[in-house]
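Batch job 17 of 40 flagged for manual review because the log was empty.
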Amino acid sequence: MAWSVALACASAGEPAEVFGPGLRPDPGAAARLARGLYPAATLVETGDTVLDFALWPYEDELFVGAYDERALLLCDRRLFCLDDDARRVADSVAAALPGARCGVLVLHSVISGCWFRWYEGGALRRDVFVTKEDGVVVDQGERLPVERPFWTAIDQGAEDVPLPFDPEEFGLALARSHMFGRGIADRGTDGFLPLELPLRRFKLC
């Protein structure tokens, strides 16, 4: 399956413990986060949806989920730009929950690449950007344990162009380990499926 994803996910605690049945959405907190990210824009709330629909928003919209002061989700295609504004959005979500952990994942179904940022307590710990054609573009901070098998060939002297691992598999492994504690599309024995998480939809005017 080819994924397009522009997602920031923060949790106040281990993701596997935070994300599960019973998470209650807080529309008011979602609206405050959206307006804090884009104070100069006119934001119009246009209803509710689920993460499955929201992973790759149109350019004039964003999706926000806030849950019990324990977790935040943001889907915003501006993250795909990988520019200063994308980093501002990522940094802001990472700092929105005191002491939280936050992963930011960008994948695209056509451009075979992955951008991932990892924060702890609002501080950036890991920043990595890889593409199939360009290899390793950014590799900053200590690598996370789930990454290590992907880097084996490069660490043993292989060229990184073309990249010797699949960027999508790399990104989804990071999401499974550090963002939700399970695969984005994996329903657990508890019945919880990340793709069914509710989010508020906002249009930027």
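Reviewer: the log was empty due to a logging misconfiguration, but the result itself is present. The helical segments are 15-18, 27-37, 51-54, 84-96, 148-155, 167-179. Unflagging and moving on to job 18.
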